[in-house]
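tmp note - Pyrophosphate--fructose 6-phosphate 1-phosphotransferase
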Amino acid sequence: ENLSVLTKARQAYQPKLPVSLKNGALSVKINKGAATESVSDQAKIKELFPNTYGLPVVQFEAAEAKAGKALRMGVVLSGGQAPGGHNVIAGIYDGIKSVSKDSVLFGFLGGPSGLENGKYIEIDDAKMDAYRNAGGFDMIQSGRTKLETEEQFNKCIAVANKLDLDAIVIIGGDDSNTNAAVLGEYFQSKGVKTCVCGCPKTIDGDLKNEFIETSFGFDTAVKTYSELIGNIMRDANSAQKYWHFIKLMGRSASHIALEAALQTHPNICLISEEVKAKQMKLKDVIKQVADVVYARAAQGKNFGVALIPEGLLEFIPDVGVLISELSEALAHHEAEVEGLDTAAKVEKLCAWVSAESAEVLKSLPAGIQAQLMLERDSHGNVQVSLIETEKLIIEMVKKELKNRGDFKGKFSALNHFFGYEGRCAAPSNFDADYCYSLGFAASVLALNGMNGYMSSVRNVTKGIENWVAGGLPITMMMNIERRHGADKPVIRKALVELDGPMSAPFKYFAARRDEWAKTESYTYPGPIQYWGPSEVCDITNFTIKLERGA
Ligand code: FBP
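out:
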């Protein structure tokens, strides 16, 4: 009785699979490509991953069924929620059951810590069926624990051995897939039979490269935000009295903000990567926003909609330097600032950062100072979703307009933050199919003992009959980055490209934004449709279509 009509109806949806997986995991031939290299820092990464470096990319092909024994697998959901996670699990489940009905799937509870501490459930038919095509990660929950110490790895080995696991799939973003690679390497070096595979998840859309066309969840999340933005635009244009400043999730990259702009045509959309490339200081960003507000007011339009990417502050050069110096300082002096109030913390920290950063820190409102000094997450990242950038911009634009002296309009601004409401929406047909296929592909990787791989499904803008499933060695996506005051191997994040092969979404936006600034070109995408004409319910998103030239 707690199931909505939609939830019940969605449970019956049968996600589509690429041709190579349609006849089950045993009917798949593995085609191996050439050896791979990491994207940079090759020597260092090779040294860190002696067993799993240089593996080939693999593609699956439908073939005659071969024999295979029942599989024992574990699955972990890691990091922020993303629509479609349950369908990855469903794909793994159906994949291993296609090998043998005696195959078993364990779901580790609460993220990587569930694996470390041996907290799990066994997933059966009833449990699985209750979560098919459902949003959220609530079947087994998620967590952000980073598996990085030898002690943790050894605990994972004990759990894997106790459950006699053939493979573990870690469903996560760039950091979590890095965890998967590190764990897989460790397992192999210790002669443990369990393979570790990854699966590309994150609404942020920044886990992609030549081979990963998109991370799952992005499509559904942006559609959810775009629906809400469209509704706000219609309200703004009806009342014509408010400016709406909407911060959109995406820890670092601006893919979500850019895609939402392409779907809705706002008056302003800031792109962090552009701000950085143009070396715009905070005051330049404020001037750019104030110019649009000013020009619209001159036309009698005291309303509008502005989209602000969540990661913006880190990309503004002077603020970005401050944030990384703060991270470094906080990592080294944690105990000394514990318990101090904001002013006292600022005082102390100013002595540990550069003079320029100290100046920027002091110029910010106390609320933002406090938010910038919040504890980093276990991966060493600033928790940007807790920083109220949209409020900071409103305040500073207000000041700037006042300082101009000749602003005759009204600037009445409201702030919004769209983040969590998009992360657990019921997956769009695209995400439902993509995730199920990724999960099924992971079962094939497990069946074939492929350690250190990420499951992949490509050609996704070309119609399901052309989707290509396979696996990618995780080490090929790695480079070395500074995290939490130390050099770490991590998967390179894909940011919005301003130029180069993947720049079509930005260029499409850049060619239209001046027109959108002046006018009300607002476009209303409406809610995600699950049934109806294919052009409505199987639609993907502008980003992937423009990037892939579809
Ligand atoms: P992942 O990278 O783990 O997928 O998480 C993405 C994200 O939703 C970001 O957009 C956001 O900054 C962050 O998670 C919020 O984290 P939390 O859920 O811990 O508040």
